[in-house]
Amino acid sequence: MKYKRILLKLSGESLMGKKQYGIDTEMVHQYAVDIKEVVDSGVEVAIVIGGGNIHRGLDAEKGGMDRVQADYMGMLATVINSMALQDALEKVGIKTRLLSAIKMEQICEPFIRRRAIRHLEKGRVVIFGAGTGNPYFTTDTAASLRAIEIEADVVLKGTRVDGIYTADPEKDKNAVRFEKITFTEVYDKGLNVMDMTAFTLCQENNLPIIVFDMNTKSNFLKVALGEDIGTLVHA
Prior knowledge:
The chain is α/β, with parallel strands linked by helices. It has helices spanning 25-40, 57-62, 67-91, 113-121, 139-149, 183-189, 196-204, 219-224; strands spanning 5-10, 44-49, 96-100, 109-110, 125-129, 154-159, 164-165, 177-178, 180-182, 209-213, 231-234. Helix 1 links the parallel strand 1 (5-10) and strand 2.
């Protein structure tokens, strides 16, 4: 089954590629090519990107910074990442719109739900920047919220591992991957898929989540077309 409308969640760290900090333009270009494949297949794509490659609010708070101030700085970092991806997408011929939860008229549109849906209907990739616009909420929560608002069929969480495991597969060689798992099982097993607020939003609105390896070429297209890639979290 091909999805009609999807929301892709990327971490800020994914944009670093092999760098220790900031944005790897080659990595962003590869993501743009992968996203173009999906758009060309007729699927409507919305995107939320984190900001951890530039600034993490929680880390700044641990260093003594005011949490609200630190979180707003993190929101600005997501806008920087969104602009980088927007540029890369337009360079490969994809029409885009960047909508921000914080008003920045010179560089992006304010988030308006109906406008976002209209852009998607016209075949544009919509990038949501600045999280939810509120401190204390992660970009995972922003991804869940925006996906529900635009009536997406699924949240696709692109990571560097190929699904959800019983333990961290990068640390535990005996970790076993789940092909499918229910929201309740994720709670019961204490698995880390998204933060609890984001995860609960998806569960309450019956919005499935697929965790997959975004760094394997054409994986995004396969997931968008309904192939069994990664791990599906369902009701």
